[in-house]
């Protein structure tokens, strides 16, 4: 699929730091240790509605990882998918009497525009589920052949399911107990109670064609793929196993990332699928998670149309830690706009305090599990000092502007 346009990232002086991140599987903050090429997969959107601030916050968190690896001298190979066929998309198209392919195309185009406006560095491979169907069907055949998958006991729809015990490691990514897994599975697109499965935790790999649903011919029989295997196959094909970061929002910890890892590990015989499983907290509005199903959404495109600067959205979302669940408020936006104005005023001065220490501290805080609230404080302190005319370094304003651009993606 077509991706979106990139912005240039300035190189900044000084000593980069290794990036430390919280990994859901080990439950600890550890240093990432990519090779020359850092490899990242971030789960993309299901394009049935416009990009809301929750999506934006999640992709901005992974944009920081991208930028910090670039700063540390790595090349970054970044893959993102688009779930351009799945139940929620088909249900929305049906509700609105719209062609599901047109809905997916329009919402994906709007997402690209929003990401570009937010200066999110684009993935190198932007891959749709539909275009991946032949590879997914091949992978499901392989899982059937190895005994990691089976046909459900249902003569009308003999769908293919994954035996969740196939790798012997199921549960290592989320660390949830079985009761929690069953509850979350029922809430998040799974079907624990479907009759004919060997175990309630076995997950759908291939859904045989139903009347009125899109389907594709395959050696498995006409049908369409399950959700988790889409990401396993797209990631394995582009990045192989043992890549550095698998990412998404915390609602993907289970079931999605648990099954994506299990499917991929059963397919490849290799472990781990990803070295880090990184999850961003949920953005809410008025105390509830912002989600398409609840309809309490604040759209990036609407804010942009109202004249809100994407740079202010970045600063507003970075004012909280990426892992914490947090609420969007008008006040958060106003504080970010004021901060942006202050920073701009400071970097427009002919001189300021030296930038080296500030840049070193900015790196320290960002590489400490993306501690953006404390990173913003560092720039606030420099800006305050500059605005009280306490510095004489004529190079400093440009150096700060470039560091804020490279590491935070904020254009001053
Ligand atoms: N297509 C799948 C992933 S393969 C999917 O979850 N799509 S999505 O459109 O529902 O979500 C896209 C990304 O935004 C996911 O990483 C999801 O975890 C994240 N996300 C969704 N809602 C929120 C929210 N309220 N706050 C933060 N992130 C969110
Ligand atoms: Zn995914």
Task: Give a structural overview.
Helix content is 42%, strand content 15%. The chain is of the alpha/beta class and 412 residues long. The two termini are 31 Å apart. Bound molecules: 5'-O-(N-(L-cysteinyl)-sulfamoyl)adenosine and zinc ion.
The rough form would be described as elongated
Ligands bound here?
5'-O-(N-(L-cysteinyl)-sulfamoyl)adenosine, zinc ion
Order of helices and strands: EEEHEHHEHEEHEEHEHEEEHHEHHHH
Assembly level? single chain
Structural Rg: 22 Å
Low-pLDDT parts are: none
Terminal-residue CA separation: 31 Å
Number of helices: 13
Strand order of the largest sheet: 5-4-3-10-11
Largest sheet: 5 strands, parallel
Structure summary, number of beta strands: 14
What key phrases describe this protein's structure?
binds 5'-O-(N-(L-cysteinyl)-sulfamoyl)adenosine, 13 helices, alpha/beta, about 15% strand, binds zinc ion, four-stranded antiparallel β-sheet
In brief, what are we looking at here?
By secondary structure, the chain is an alpha/beta fold. Helices cover 42% and strands 15% of the residues.
Topology:
Layout: E1 20-23, E2 28-31, E3 37-42, H1 53-71, E4 75-82, H2 87-95, H3 100-117, E5 125-128, H4 133-146, E6 149-151, E7 160-162, H5 178-187, E8 203-208, E9 223-225, H6 227-239, E10 243-249, H7 253-268, E11 274-280, E12 283-285, E13 288-289, H8 300-305, H9 310-318, E14 326-328, H10 330-347, H11 356-367, H12 372-387, H13 396-408
Helix pairs in contact: 4-6, 6-7, 9-10, 10-12, 11-12, 11-13
This protein binds 5'-O-(N-(L-cysteinyl)-sulfamoyl)adenosine (5CA) and zinc ion (ZN).
5'-O-(N-(L-cysteinyl)-sulfamoyl)adenosine (5CA) is lined by residues 43-46, 54-55, 57-58, 81, 83, 231, 248-249, 251-252, 280, 282-283, 289-291.
């Amino acid at each position: 699929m077509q991706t979106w346009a990139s912005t240039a990232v300035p190189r900044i002086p000084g000593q980069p730091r290794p990036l430390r991140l919280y990994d859901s599987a080990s439950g600890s903050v550890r240093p990432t240790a990519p090779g020359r090429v850092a490899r990242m997969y971030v789960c993309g959107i299901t394009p049935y509605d416009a990009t809301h601030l929750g999506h934006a916050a999640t992709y901005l968190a992974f944009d920081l990882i991208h930028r910090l690896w670039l700063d540390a001298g790595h090349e970054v190979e970044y893959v993102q998918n688009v779930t351009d066929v799945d139940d929620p998309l088909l249900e929305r198209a049906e509700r609105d009497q719209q062609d599901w392919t047109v809905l997916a195309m329009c919402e994906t185009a709007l997402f690209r525009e929003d990401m570009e406006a937010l200066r999110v560095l684009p993935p190198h491979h932007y891959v749709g589920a539909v275009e991946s169907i032949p590879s997914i069907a091949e992978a499901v055949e392989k899982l059937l052949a190895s005994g990691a998958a089976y046909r459900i006991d249902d003569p009308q729809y003999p769908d293919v399911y994954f035996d969740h015990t196939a790798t012997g490691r199921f549960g290592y990514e989320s660390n949830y107990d079985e009761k929690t897994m069953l509850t979350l599975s029922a809430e998040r697109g799974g079907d624990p109670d479907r009759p004919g499965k060997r175990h309630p935790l076995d997950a759908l790999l291939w859904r045989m064609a139903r009347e009125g649903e899109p389907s594709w011919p395959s050696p498995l029989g006409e049908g369409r793929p399950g959700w988790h295997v889409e990401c396993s196959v797209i990631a394995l094909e582009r990045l192989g196993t043992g890549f550095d970061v698998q990412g998404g929002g915390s609602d993907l910890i289970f079931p999605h990332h648990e099954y994506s890892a299990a499917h991929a590990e059963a397919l490849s015989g290799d472990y781990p699928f990803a070295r880090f499983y990184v999850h961003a907290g949920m953005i809410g509005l008025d105390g509830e998670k912002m989600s398409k199903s609840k309809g309490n959404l604040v759209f990036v495109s609407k804010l942009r149309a109202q004249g809100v600067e994407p740079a202010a959205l970045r600063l507003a979302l970075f004012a909280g830690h990426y892992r914490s669940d947090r609420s969007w408020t008008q006040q958060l936006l106003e504080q970010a706009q004021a901060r942006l104005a202050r920073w701009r005023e400071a970097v427009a001065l002919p001189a300021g305090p030296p930038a080296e220490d500030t840049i070193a501290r900015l790196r320290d805080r960002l590489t400490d599990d993306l501690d953006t609230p404390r990173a913003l404080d560092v720039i606030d302190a420099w800006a305050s000092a500059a605005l009280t005319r306490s510095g004489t370094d004529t190079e400093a304003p440009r150096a700060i502007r470039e560091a804020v651009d490279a590491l935070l993606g904020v254009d001053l």
